[in-house]
Amino acid sequence: MPKFKPRQRKQKHRQREATNAPVDTNVTEILPVAKSEKEAKRQDLREELRSQHEKISSKKQKRLDKYIENKLKKEENLELLKKLAQANVDTSGLQSSRDLGRGKNDQTEKPATSATAGATNATAPDAEISDDDLDDLDLKLKAAAKENKVEDIVKKPVDLPGVGSGLKRPLDVGSDGFPVIKKRKQTKKAKPAPAPVAEIPWEGFGSDDESDDDSDEDDVSDNSESDDEEESTSDEGSEDSSEESSEDTSSDEDDEEESTTKIKPRQSAFKSWAKQQINDAIGFNPNTVPVTEEVQAFDPEKRPVRNTVFEEEPLPPELQVTQGNPYRKAFSVQVDRPEEIQNARLGLPVVGEEQKIMEAIHNNSSIVIWGATGSGKTTQLPQFLFEAGYGNPDSPNPGMIAVTQPRRVAAVSMAKRVGDELGQFSDKVAYQIRFEGSASSKTAIKFMTDGILLREIAEDFSLSKYSIIVIDEAHERSVNTDILIGMASRIVDLRKAMSEEDPTVKPLKLVVMSATLRISDFTQNASLFRHGSPPLVQAEGRQYPVTVHFARRTHRDYVEEAFRKVSRGHRKLPPGAMLVFLTGQNEIKQLSKRLKQTFKPTQRAEATQAKVQLSANDAPLEAEDMELGGADISNTAIGGDDDDDSDLEITGLDDPEEDDEFDLGEEAMDSSTRVHVLPLYSQLPTKEQLKVFETPPEGSRLIVLATNVAETSLTIPGIKYVFDCGRAKEKQYDLFTGVQNFQIDWISKASANQRAGRAGRTGPGHCYRLFSSAVYEQFAEYTDPEILRTPIEGVVLQMKSMGLHNVINFPFPTPPSRQGLAKAEKLLKNLGALTSAGQVTQIGHRLSTYPLSPRFGKMLYIGHQHGCMPYIIALVSALAVGDLFVPENQIDPVSSKDNEGGVYTNSDRLEDTAREQRHKDYARAQRLFSKHDDTSDALKSLSSICAYGYASDVDSFCEQMFLRAKAFKEATQLRRQLTDIVRNNNPGLVPAYQARLPEPSEKQIKALKQIVTAGFIDNVAIRADLAPVPPEMHRTPKRAIDVPYLTLFRSREGPANEFQEKAVYVHPTSLLARLTPKEMPQYVIYSHLQQSSPSLVSDQVPKIRMYPLVTPSGLQLSAIAHGTPLLEYGKPIGKTENLDGIPARRACWVIPSLIGEAGSTGWPMPAKKVVQRKDPKEGWVIEKFTS
């Protein structure tokens, strides 16, 4: 191989030499504009803009100054850019970033230093270059190659002082400054090129199937990196370039910017071997003989004709025709809507998906629809179904359309909205919630709570009245929703089988709608849908963008922070309604009054009232529908009052940084605009709840303060701004101990996104989160399904009474824990509803007919004794609704002005007098309600609901007697319902409903207490110092609420070593809290246990409190517990008297014991005289008790 002779063909160097000497752009110094000149410009601009506006407020002045600053900065930047544009920069040494990491093509032209240049010039001509070093040489031709000027370039070498002649880059320099000389490798002899082979039809899986021409083939087989030659305009040009590439492997090409050809990949030995292996595996033998005639891969004329449309664009699964009848009869109902309603509907994304959704429903028995917040699926899907004939007696699907909602507010408001949109068919839409409904024989669309539909399933398992079931808000995963989905999936199969036997029975359709993508529990649950996963139909989501603003800091007092943010937002934000999410009713009332005191309210009457204030933990949980899983019979949690400056008006405290998030570039509302503040929570009367959908007074801003009721389903018109505290109050239930606590905790990410979505329903919106993005990242993705955190004895009894004996095999979307199931079955056995083998007893079947917890069902079952049934119905209604009385710590009005000076004024004296009078009135009301028994909270509830029945003006009565009007209204409705159920099940047992009942007799009062004990027999506690083994107490309690009790079953999970961890205490709201410690009873029957939230300043574990009902004696307990697994009898004590007869009988005294946990010693009850008989299998068993 001849020695390498470098040629200088660098045209760019010649061009650079031709131009003038390089200009150093850093020589000229660019000085900043003088301050005086800048100020003069600013003043001119300000005067020019001011002349356009006569009156400028301080707020506009700030914006004007900001605008002028920005404009001056932009002008300076433009001048600087113009100067930079005039400077010339040598870009010859630069390289495209596309070549980075491309190995051998990655060589750039680097100017060599004068020190290394000499060494390069000295060594380059005489050096022998190996193949590896050749890889580092430049192989690109310059642009002159295109114009056939290659020879000219070779003849005219370029003289460049201080630049290496042949090498692309200087030699590498070591740490000592001397060049590093690489060890040369032995030059390999080039192999003779094989004869050129014409292209064959297919070469397996090779990477270089195509070649440009024969010369390329030579280069590829030569070994080195081969490049495709450029297309030349004449034959001579192509010959020149091919000669040079074969003579000399180091040739130049165009730069990447000028080149349009692709670089062929380098030959790899591994690739060749792999290609050979693949060809051998598939039996392909490539031709090595020169092919004289090119064979075509296929003949277009012989190509088979086929329809490829379906292959290229197959139908989605929900549109594919199933095994059903594809020739179904078309049916439609024409609805005439007003123009404005029709235009509003067309703006909803889901309306554009009507064809896809309806085809999916027609073609499948069950489908899942996912539509993000704002798609309009809740209001539009029932209308799609109605227009397609569902619910029409003349159509193929005459049954009603059932739409279930988890909340009553949503069921009522959605029915009203759909009725308004259906034009002339508005009377076809009805709703049914507990104690209230508008359904009639005309009804075609029925909105209801999921609990209502479950009751209907219990009466008619095939749901023969309905043709389609739509389960909305399935992502909320309430207990009823989960059970309903499981039941409906089986009823769909049942109706399909029935329709095959009898064509008059129409199949049932099931639609599950979810606003989040947490649908794998439905779609991928093999036990839920046995015939394969239902298709998922995606409806378009929110139609308007929502900008989310996180807080810089997360404040602990989120109510105070909400007040500050809403106040600032009202002053600075453009027109638009606000929705504020809080955790409970009392926070809503607190914030509502503060906003009305700070701004001008539209409702003048409420603004001047004194403000009631309490901590969030004092407030009751939002009471929702009575669920199968047991009633919420809890009152309020314990906790002290918050002391924050509630009436402090924030002025002049605006943080300029925080104001940026309220600066939306639009004109803000006038700060004197009135505020129209409305609350929204579940305990609010329906009439009050629907006010949020009304148009606010003109010239006011609507501010809705809501709990998580407003998180889903509801679309409040005009909401543009959402303020989210990021928290929610939920009742948490310990499945092991049965202890409830009301925890204000962070919501999930899914809930936070749902809340933000409220701002994007009717237009672009903004969501202001009162927590930082760092806190948000710690949120759980989704909330746990309710079935994992609630008692399920009602669910278990309902299923077993329907014949589903193995509850664990029921197709739950999320199965309940085995621990929860075991606890539920244990309670049902204690109540006598299940046998020891787990079969439903006659009592159990009767208990399942009541829409209540099995405990209340047991009370109704035995309540007919001594004519007590009307009283028991009233008592059960009161206990089931719960939260009847206003707690004493909520009756004090807080002063509307802070007494900073410490001077006791006349107004302070009047407030103190009013406060004392209210406490006296409260004590008097409590005494009146507890006149039958001053130790029984259950009888206090009975007295209050009976007194409510006598009241002529119920609202004023509730206000005077410190009662919750909505709770009593609901309890009265439940009384009516239960009276009807008892009359239907036991004709003649109870007379028709009477609101006014006579005073109960002494005998009836005693019987009532025993009936309550029977319903809560396992919820019993013994005074710690009177227990069989009294614990050691460090100090004597001074108050009744400090007297410790021990429960029959453990009140805390895990081993409780300390006595304080085992003990429970009476709740301060109980009548027992008024007694002295010595007067406290030995035994207490309680409704439930509750633990307050942990203190933020103390490490002490919060006490567990019990809500007492009655105080039975030991004899009463042993008599009522007889026949349950809770009571065991010991061996005879004293003398035994043998009695005559067969089998053998004896009379003796025995000691019964209440046994809780397995293996515990139990609580000995008073001894009883009994007659026992000898059983061959079980030994001595009790035949009867003797006095």
CATH homologous superfamily heading of the domain at 339-538:
P-loop containing nucleotide triphosphate hydrolases
Second-tier CATH architecture of the domain at 339-538: 3-Layer(aba) Sandwich
User: Helical content, roughly?
Assistant: 25-40%
Overall, the morphology is globular
The residue ranges in which pLDDT falls below 50 over 5 or more consecutive positions are 104-167, 202-261, 605-657, 894-900
Kindly report the spatial arrangement of strands forming the biggest sheet: 4-3-5-2-6-7-1-8
Mean pLDDT reading:
76
CATH class of the domain at 339-538: Alpha Beta
User: What name is given to the CATH topology of the domain at 339-538?
Assistant: Rossmann fold
Give the N-to-C terminal Cα separation: 128 Å
Task: Describe this entry's structure for a reader.
The protein has 36 helices and 28 strands. Among the domains are: 339-538, Rossmann fold (3-Layer(aba) Sandwich); 546-599 and 659-787, 3-Layer(aba) Sandwich (Rossmann fold); 850-891 and 916-1015; 1017-1118, no CATH class; 1126-1186, no CATH class. The strands form 5 sheets. It has an 8-stranded mixed sheet, with helices on both faces. The longest helix is centred in the N-terminal third of the chain and has 29 residues, at 58-86. With 1187 residues, the chain is an alpha/beta fold. The protein is globular and about 140 Å long. The N and C termini lie far apart (128 Å). 33% of the residues lie in helices and 13% in strands. Helix 29 packs across helix 33.
Keywords:
1187 residues, alpha/beta, Rossmann fold, 8-stranded mixed beta sheet, 7-stranded mixed beta sheet, 28 strands, 33% helix
